[in-house]
From TrEMBL:
Tree of life domain: Bacteria
Source organism (scientific name): Actinacidiphila reveromycinica
Region (Disordered): 174-227
Stored InterPro entries: Pvc16_N
Entry protein name: Pvc16 N-terminal domain-containing protein
Ranges of residues in domain Pvc16 N-terminal: 4-181
Amino acid sequence: MIHEVDEVLRGLLSGGALAGTGVDIAFEAPTRDWAARRNAPTIDAYLYDIREDVARRERGAISIRDEQGIVVRRRQPPRWYRLSYLVTAWTKQPQDEHRLLSAVLATLLPREVLPPEELTGALAALGLTIPLSVAGTQTDSRSFAEIWSALGGELKPSLDVTVTAPFPAYPEYDAGPPVTEGAGVRVRGTDGSLEGSAERHHRPRHLAERKEAARQAARGTLRDTSE
């Protein structure tokens, strides 16, 4: 799932205001050694934090239906994780880096949500829309100064980009066969005998609705034939 988010972010950073600029897109830690090897303008999106968004955690099971709408499998709801990227620009001049960061903002700000058709792999298969935030308020205790200190580099202008992505929960399991007959109830007499007692049947709602729809369709066919 994480590598799929990387590819989605790579596609976003390669388009928009950055389309056709030829800027390299990297996902490496921006250490001193890495920075010294840069010989072309680069946008670096370093994944520095992964945390579950517990506010999005769901309970229960999700039903998977076939073409007829019958439940064939069930699975647990996905767990959502916040992937935080430290996005920086690397050129020879600070002004050029500021222009690149401005282009990143112009590219990502309109993309507050990413629809399933723009995702790939398991993310697309879930059919869920994932949110994206840019340069939002930092809520955890870790400051960017501490991140740069851990990387061994000097503090540099950066954008905090957070993608909240679902991680599929496994395993899936087969559902039981659908109900095709109603429950039968037989009432005994006061003496315990079954003679003269009637058996009552309860038809499930979806079967009754299906039978009624078939009856209405048949009536329409007969009416068309008679006309």
